[in-house]
Structure formats: C-alpha cells, structure tokens
Amino acid sequence: MAYKNSQQADDVREMLEQGLAAWNRLPVRVRRAGAIRVPDLGKLDRAFTRTPPPGGLILNVFTRILDRKRDGQYICGSCSFPGGELPGRDRMWLKRSEWQSLVPATAKKGDSFDMRPAVADRLLRYHLVDNTRGEPPYWASKDIRKKHLRWTVLLADKEDVRLRLEGSVLLATDANPAKAKRGYEARLFGYLHYDRVRKIVDRLDVVAVGEHWGEGAYTPGARPGRQPLGIALELAGGERATDKIPPQAARDLEDYLGRD
Length: 260
Fold this sequence. Notes:
Number of domains: 2
Low-confidence stretches: none
Number of strands: 9
Number of helices: 5
Radius of gyration: 22 Å
Structural class: alpha+beta
Shape: globular
Mean pLDDT: 92
C-alpha cells in the first residue's frame, strides 16, 4: 500500500480503501474477533498521552489564506499549491487557572487589563501560524516583536461578565521585519462571555487578520510577498472526538502548557 503525505480528501480515501482491501485479503482466522490479543499496556508515558487539562477550555482554530477585493473586503484566497486554499485546523488548550484569569472576580464595567502573558504567548507562538499547506514552524519567544492584547469589561453583574478583546501583534524572524524570512502582522478582535450562575465560559471567540509572509520546511508554496491571512478561534464543546485531538504544538506538552 503506497503512502501519500497529502491533504487531498481523494488521496486519503484511496489510502483507506487500499488498507481495507488488504485487510479483506487476510485469512478469516486472522480477521475474526479475538484473533489478536493486545497485552496490558502498563503505565502510560505522559509524553505520549496528551489529554486536555482538567477543568480547562478547548478552542478550535481555523486558518485561511485570504484575498482582497478592489473595495478592500476580504474573500477566500487562492494559490497554486494543491489544497492551499483549504482551511488549516488545530486546537488550543487553556488550563483552568488561565481561563479564570480572563474573568477577574472583581470585574467591573469599564475595567481594562492585558491578557495573561502565558496565554498570550501560547496564542501567538503556536496558533498565529500559517498551517494551510502543512505542518508550520512555530514562532520563538524572540520572534514576538510587538504584542498588545487587552480585554475590556463590557458588562459585569450578578449573572454575566462580558468582555471584548482588541489588540495587535507583530511576529517576525528578524528584528527588522523587512529582513525577516517569515512574519505575521495582524490585528485581533474577540469576545468572551462568562456565566456567573453556572460558573462557565460559554463563549470565547478570537479573530486575527493581517499579512503573513514566508514559508517553512514543510509548508512550501507560499504566495510571494506579504499576503492576507485570517485565523479564527472558537470555543469547542468538548463532546466530539475531534475536540480532544491534541494541539499540533503539544508534542512537548510541558513546553506547550508550561510547568505548574
């Protein structure tokens, strides 16, 4: 069975059909239930057992290349790389203490505060990336050249807390963006709703739109120069199996989530 490292649905379907055909060619005695016994796995290695943090939040992340119309409006982008116009997908994890830091117990209407550095840096380094053509390189801490992410309390009463996020970022592999091989300069906007009665966050949306440039070892075929890129994050329900797929950058979970 030939393996293809492809993002195309037809190629993946072909590989699955080849695998199913190979399975069906095996003798019945090999395929019957109980023919293969899996031994006790023993103690699981945490490095390969990545589960969402207890009491945390899961955000689905979607990335798309964009184009601009003559009137300045954004539309879905197009590129010559096969599948490059399709959305990239990932997940972002927040620990319980992190999302709680976004909803101060003493929040009052008009209050304003910066996003917690650990949350902001995880968002910027691992999720404001172009993953539309493959596995992207992530930003190093030093690549965060500018960062302004500020929450404003729109409403705070006995039942609800509503916040708005506004900000801007510059990520670049060189202190001089004009010399950087890769970069992303974007504005961010978002909303958060906290239900004080149920003690849960039931809305958390963030959108980043700006100009991205450059490519990585596994993301060739980028459009030349600065090109529009949009990234959207939304709260996941957590019930679907896909919601629990670890973030791509969480191969090293301690590096991704930090040490408690």
